[in-house]
Amino acid sequence: MKTIGKLKIGMMGVVNTTPDSFSDGGQFNTPESFKRQLEVLKDVDILDIGAESTAPFANPITAPEESDRLTVVDFEAIKAFPKVSIDSYHLETVRNFAENYRGPGELIWNDVSGVFGEKTRELLEEFPQMSYVFSHTHVPDKSQTSFHMEYLGELNVAEKFRDFLDHGLKYKVYLDPCFGFSKTREQNHELIEQLPELIREFEHDFIIGISRKSFLRFTDLPKDDPQLILETEVHQSVILSKLIDQLKDLDRTIYFRMHDPVVYNALTRF
Questions:
Q1: pLDDT averaged over the chain?
Q2: At what angle do helices 185-201 and 157-165 cross, to 10 degrees?
């Protein structure tokens, strides 16, 4: 965790056990490669583990398929991290992960669906030690999460956050504006401009994830092209540097969801 002015900044490091994620598909889907990536991410504040790509137009998978991809996870090794996040909208996957984890650190359910219903509440009550990430999308139910780009609407992030927080929640909550989900390219850039005001309004920890997002691209290169990755990382750094400067007087905590600790360390070196 880094402190700049009054603002506390942490890194949520991403490791995907998927064959098709746009950022690292196929790289960490064996026990050996997964464990090697844990060493790369050993200093992150939150380890975020995902097993299904929810990039636009990715094919959805079932909960059993997702759980099968998570068999590469070394649950003893991940207990070394202060916070561990499971990135899934499948309740069955989250339940299985929580039962296997039972670690000393904070367990976080990173629910990218943005759909908070009775079954979600019941699962959180089943595991009272588990925190919850509420994400902004427009999908009508969790089963439609992979089709989020079919559900575009107004950029009503603050309104959705207010409605969610009115539930009288009994557990720790993180707020995620969810860049790239149910948003046009123009809306993603508009959301960047809204971020300082949005973060100031809500007294909760925020997760900001723009790392390697497609709306940061300016060139039509293959998604795994090193030049394209560098381009998006530079663009991300410019955006987040400006955000830090705008919020450094705020006594709040923000986690940047990123793929590369080198970028995070360079961004926060001051």
A1: 92
A2: 50
- Rounded to whole angstroms, the Cα distance separating 70 from 66 reads 7
Closest by CA position to 142, among listed 164, 117, 168 = 117
To the question of pTM greater than 0.85 for the whole model, the response is yes
**Token digits for 248?**
């450094």
Q: Which domains does the chain have, with CATH numbers?
A: 2-267 (3.20.20.20)
Helix ranges, the chain (H): 31-40, 63-69, 75-78, 91-101, 118-126, 157-165, 185-201, 226-247, 261-267
Give the DSSP letter string of 159-225.
Answer: HHHHHHHTT---S-EEEE--TTSS--HHHHHHHHHHHHHHHHH--SEEEE--TT-GGG--S---TT-
Token pair belonging to 90: 């499948």
For range 94-100, the mean pLDDT: 96
Residues 6 or more apart whose CB falls under 8 angstroms from that of 119 comprise 91
